[in-house]
Amino acid sequence: MNLDERKRKILSTVVENYIESAEPVASKIIAEKYEREFSSATIRNEMKQLEEIGLLEQPHVSAGRIPSTMGYRYYIDNLMKENILTMMDIDYINNNIVSFGNVEATLENAVAVISKILKLPAVLHTKNKDTIENVKILKVSERILLIILMSKGGTVKDVIVKITDAVPEDSLEELDKMLNKSLKGTFLEDLPDVLSSAISNQLHKFSDILEALALSINYEIKENKTSAVKTDMIELLEIPEFSDTNRVKELLNILSTKQIIGEVIEKIEDKDISIVIGNESKDILLKDYSIISLDMETTTNAKVAVLGPKRTDYSKAISTLKYVNNKLKNIFSKEEDNIDG
């Protein structure tokens, strides 16, 4: 969609004013800014046309206009200028993002800093590339097994599997040996698929146990990918969108059910900055929210995302994520140099 210069200026003004004020933008506000360029009648006509093509919405008959999802998308893709962080924000990031001795802890701290700067929930989403090193099966009772998965990187996952029929000790020993043979070297991410393949091929007599294990692991992987959600509720409640108790409950439900955000982030292509606005997520619970995410350049294939209302300051969010990413790159680069040295 190509807009002429006048429509571009008016759309930019509506988006930027609405982001700042949370109030529908009336034509008189635009007239004050462009009084020497456009007449009030021209501005009203242009706003009506922007509404007709789906870039603006009028929440009430007598109200001004607000951006639609499509309007935010056009603004972000064509009109937005990147924000320059204030020295206060830069100092806060530099003073508070430090190494915590391991990648995940350092990233979780960075997520907390991003949340503080933007006053919005921030999320850490990781893709684990660790591999299985050893499997141990313990019989807790006749109907309950504890399967311990140990990874090469030192991660230990305990999975409780409930079975319908008791399994003899010698069968469990056989399964233990076969799982170690089949799973060693498997990426944790690929474990459910490998287990399904094993059931189809040589381990079908243990299908009940392995199906339960695959189900548990699949759930655990999805949950653990979104490993940290940081937010300051006091700051959050000051945002106009969350003055309504029902909206706060809705947001808390989204944040507590990490899988909702995680599934959207999973579908985002790996690239510099990605922004999913409202119903672009295809999830009804996220229709009034936006997710701004960035691939962090670390060894853990991590994404850091910010969740906010559609009226989020996208420019500042992008600048903050990029600055933090550069800060983390410097930290991890120095750590690698120290190891090599």
Please give a handful of descriptors for the protein shown:
341 residues, alpha+beta, Arc Repressor Mutant, subunit A, Enolase-like, domain 1, 5-stranded antiparallel β-sheet, 13 helices
Task: Please explain how this structure is put together.
- With 341 residues, this protein is of the alpha+beta class.
- The chain has 3 domains: 75 residues, Winged helix-like DNA-binding domain superfamily/Winged helix DNA-binding domain (Arc Repressor Mutant, subunit A); 145 residues, 2-Layer Sandwich (Beta-Lactamase); 91 residues, Heat-inducible transcription repressor hrca homolog, domain 3 (Enolase-like, domain 1).
- It is built from 13 helices and 10 strands.
- The strands form 3 sheets. It has a 5-stranded antiparallel beta sheet with strand order 7-3-10-9-8, sandwiched between helices. It has a 3-stranded antiparallel beta sheet with strand order 4-5-6.
- A hairpin with a 4-residue loop joins strand 5 and strand 6.
- Helix 2 crosses helix 3.
- The longest helix has 27 residues.
- The mean pLDDT is 86.
Topology readout:
Blueprint: H1 5-21, H2 27-33, H3 40-52, E1 56-57, E2 66-67, H4 69-79, H5 87-96, H6 103-118, E3 122-126, E4 132-141, E5 144-151, E6 156-162, H7 169-183, H8 191-200, H9 207-225, E7 226-230, H10 233-236, H11 245-256, H12 258-267, E8 273-277, E9 289-296, E10 302-309, H13 314-340
Antiparallel strand pairs: 1-2, 3-7, 3-10, 4-5, 5-6, 8-9, 9-10
Helix pairs in contact: 1-3, 1-4, 2-3, 5-6, 5-13, 6-13, 8-9
